[in-house]
TrEMBL record:
It comes from the Bacteria. Part of the binding-protein-dependent transport system for D-xylose. Probably responsible for the translocation of the substrate across the membrane. GO terms for cellular component: plasma membrane. Keywords: Cell inner membrane, Cell membrane, Membrane, Sugar transport, Transmembrane, Transmembrane helix, Transport. InterPro entries: ABC_transp_permease. Its main location: membrane. GO terms for molecular function: transmembrane transporter activity. This is Xylose transport system permease protein XylH. Pfam families: BPD_transp_2. It is a multi-pass membrane protein. The chain crosses the membrane at residues 12-31, 43-62, 69-87, 93-118, 139-157, 169-188, 209-227, 233-250, 280-301. It is found in: Cell membrane.
Length: 386
């Protein structure tokens, strides 16, 4: 690999390398506790909301570095409504979830309208939303915590997939699912390469392609092996996998997904080429409201309660995950897999420092430094490219 290819490789996989190194560091510092099966499970459970919100935040950022400051408050408000319906009103969890989803969509549509069609800056619109929905959350809850959630509701997010093979110390179903996921990934990768070759597109060197496939396959199997040693596949992981796959497909394979990148790259050029930029902005924030509702469902299930402080600083975790994962502060650049790497990196830092007993205030300092470093790297890289 020559110097140019080496530079391109490290630039593309900077955060992947950082994630590996940080994981190894905390594994060393915690005496191996970092990668215990239970802690791998905790990494998913404690950061599930980040993966969901960061996926939606990516679409907002793609439109030009815009963000949504209201998502934490929306999570709290939607969760408060769900708590009232299920705990105080005795509603069926399925009906309550439909109402929560609709409330999130309405909030997203409301904010998307002002941003897209009235052209009020997203920062101002969502800052107002942050204050409004945090206040409404306290009104709905009357300052109280509602608990516990119905057992049937908790089972949707806090339970584990049954091991149909009835393994003893190892969850065999988890291993089988890992093998299926690995085979599916490899099949999709080689099919995609074959399709590019057929169309005459430039292909990456076979060595690098195979190496990437081997590493990702190994990560999948090691991850599933650790889960299999605890309780198996958590149900929330199924929700996350569905959301990640859907949005990875939308952003990489659909016309509307390409429109988000076009608007963020050059809004005027996108408009002149026939793209309805207002619609793109509207969809980004309407979608963010919907995913905030999904994050609210996950959050109140995780806490087994709806309380007035839920969702605090969630927007910062989502925004940080996007920028750390390679999304550009100027818009037009970023991928769902990159965001997932960023969210995982944030989760590893949180979990590692918690296991080490690092003070919560110092944890915030470290996360702030990591975020700043990621944005500096993005800005400096773009200046050098020019």
């Amino acid at each position: 690999m020559d110097k140019t290819n080496m530079s391109a490789f490290f630039k593309k996989y900077t955060m992947v390398i950082a994630l590996i190194l940080i994981t190894l560091f905390f594994t060393w510092r915690t005496g191996g506790n970092m990668i215990l099966p239970q802690n791998v499970n905790n990494l998913i459970a404690q950061n599930a909301y980040v993966f969901v919100l960061a996926t939606g935040m990516l679409l907002c950022i793609l439109t030009g570095g815009n963000i949504d400051l209201s998502v934490g408050s929306v999570v709290c408000f939607v969760g408060a409504i769900g708590g009232q319906l299920m705990v105080n009103k005795g509603w069926n969890p399925g009906m309550a979830m439909v109402v929560m989803l609709l409330v999130g969509i309405v909030i997203g549509v409301w904010q998307g309208f002002w941003i897209a069609y009235v052209r009020i800056p997203p920062f101002i619109t969502t800052l107002a939303g942050m204050l409004i929905f945090r206040g409404l959350s306290n009104v709905v809850l009357n300052g109280l915590t509602l608990a516990p959630m119905p057992a049937s509701y908790l089972a949707l997010f806090n339970s584990y997939i049954v091991d149909v093979f009835h393994g003893n110390s190892i969850n065999i179903t988890c291993i089988v699912v890992g093998l299926i996921a690995t085979v599916g990934f490899l099949a999709a990768s080689f099919a995609g390469r074959a399709a590019k070759a057929k169309k005459g597109y430039a292909l990456k060197p076979m060595g690098g392609f195979v190496g990437r496939c081997v590493v990702i396959s190994a990560v999948i199997m090691v991850f599933m092996w650790r889960l299999a040693q605890y309780k198996g596949i958590p149900t929330v992981l199924i929700w996350l996998a569905l959301i990640i796959m859907i949005y990875a497909y939308i952003t990489s394979k659909t016309t509307i997904g390409r429109h988000f990148y076009a608007v963020g790259g050059n809004e005027k050029a996108a408009e002149l080429s026939g793209i309805n930029t207002n619609k793109v902005y509207f969809l980004a924030y309407a979608n963010m409201g919907m995913l905030a509702a999904v994050a609210a469902m996950i959050t109140i299930a995780r806490l087994n309660s709806a309380n007035p402080t839920a969702g605090t600083n969630y927007e910062m975790d989502a925004i940080g995950s996007c920028f750390i994962g390679g999304a550009s502060a100027y818009g037009g650049t970023g991928t769902v897999p990159g965001v997932i790497i960023g969210a995982t990196l944030m989760g590893v830092i949180n979990l590692g420092m918690s296991i080490m007993g690092v003070d919560a205030n110092w944890q915030k300092v470290v996360k702030g430094c990591v975020l700043l470093a990621a944005v500096i790297f993005d800005v400096v890289s773009k200046k050098r490219a020019k």
